[in-house]
C-alpha cells in the first residue's frame, strides 16, 4: 500500500539520492525524457541532510521503499545550496498578484521525482497533498521551477493547480516558475 509521510531516517535520504541519480537529465535518452520527464539537479547525501535539518521533505513509500519524493526547501537553504541560491537570485524581481513574490510566506519544492514503475498511480497527488497538509498552515505559497523541456512535469503541476508566473533562463536551462497558492486555490 502506498502512503505519504515525512522523511525521518538517513536510509530514506539515501533512497531519495538513488532515485535522484536514476532520473537525472544527463543520464537519460531524449525519448525517455520526453515521455517520462526528468530531474535537473543532483542532490548529494550531505546536501539532503542539510536541507532535512531545516525542513522535512515528503516521500511516498510502499513498505520500506521510497517510491517518490518531493523536497521541501526553505529559502534559508540557499546558504549551502548553490542551485537554490541561483534560483532565488533570479526571482528577486518577480511579482505575484501585484506584490513582490519575496514578500509572501513561501517555501520551495526543491524537486519531485517518482520511480518509473509508480508513475500514473497517484503518487504525484499523494506527495503534494501531504505537502499541503504539513506546510499550508505556515506558508501561503509553494513555489517551484520546472524546465521548459519537461512537458510531463509542467502538465502535472498545471493539473494540480500550479500557475506559471515567470520564465527565465540560466546557465543550466530555461525555467518556468510556478506557484501553488493554497489560500486562493481549491485544487486537491
Key descriptive features of the protein:
188 residues; alpha+beta; Aminopeptidase; seven-stranded mixed sheet; two-stranded antiparallel sheet; 6 helices; globular
Superfamily (CATH H level) name: Gcn5-related N-acetyltransferase (GNAT)
The total of beta strands comes to 9
The N- and C-terminal alpha carbons lie at a distance of: 20 Å
State the CATH topology: Aminopeptidase
What structural class do the secondary elements suggest?
alpha+beta
User: What shape does the CA trace take?
Assistant: globular
Low-confidence segments, ≥5 residues, pLDDT <50?
Answer: none
Name of the level-1 CATH class: Alpha Beta
Largest sheet composition:
7 strands, mixed
Total count of domains: 1
Biggest sheet strand order reads: 1-2-3-6-7-9-8
Rg on CA atoms, Å:
15 Å
User: What is the helical fraction, as a range of percent?
Assistant: 25-40%
CATH architecture: 3-Layer(aba) Sandwich
Order of helices and strands: EHHHEEHEEEHEHEE
Q: Strand percentage, roughly?
A: 25-35%
Query: Helical region count?
Result: 6
How much is the average pLDDT? 88
Amino acid at each position: 500500500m502506498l502512503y505519504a509521510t515525512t522523511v525521518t531516517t538517513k536510509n530514506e535520504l539515501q533512497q531519495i539520492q538513488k532515485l535522484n541519480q536514476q532520473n537525472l537529465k544527463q543520464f537519460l535518452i531524449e525519448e525517455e525524457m520526453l515521455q517520462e520527464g526528468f530531474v535537473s539537479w543532483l542532490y548529494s547525501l550531505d546536501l539532503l541532510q542539510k536541507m532535512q535539518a531545516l525542513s522535512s521533505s515528503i516521500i511516498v513509500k510502499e513498505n520500506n521503499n521510497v517510491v517518490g519524493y518531493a523536497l521541501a526547501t526553505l529559502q534559508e537553504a540557499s546558504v549551502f545550496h548553490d542551485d537554490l541560491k541561483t534560483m532565488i537570485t533570479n526571482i528577486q524581481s518577480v511579482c505575484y498578484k501585484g506584490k513582490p513574490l519575496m514578500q509572501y510566506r513561501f517555501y520551495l519544492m526543491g524537486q519531485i521525482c517518482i520511480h518509473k514503475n509508480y508513475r500514473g498511480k497517484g503518487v504525484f497527488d499523494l506527495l503534494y497533498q501531504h505537502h499541503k497538509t504539513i506546510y499550508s498552515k505556515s506558508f501561503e505559497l509553494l513555489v517551484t521551477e520546472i524546465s521548459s523541456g519537461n512537458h510531463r512535469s509542467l502538465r502535472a503541476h498545471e493539473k494540480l493547480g500550479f500557475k506559471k508566473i515567470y520564465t527565465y533562463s540560466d546557465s543550466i536551462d530555461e525555467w518556468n516558475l510556478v506557484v501553488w497558492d493554497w489560500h486562493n486555490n481549491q485544487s486537491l
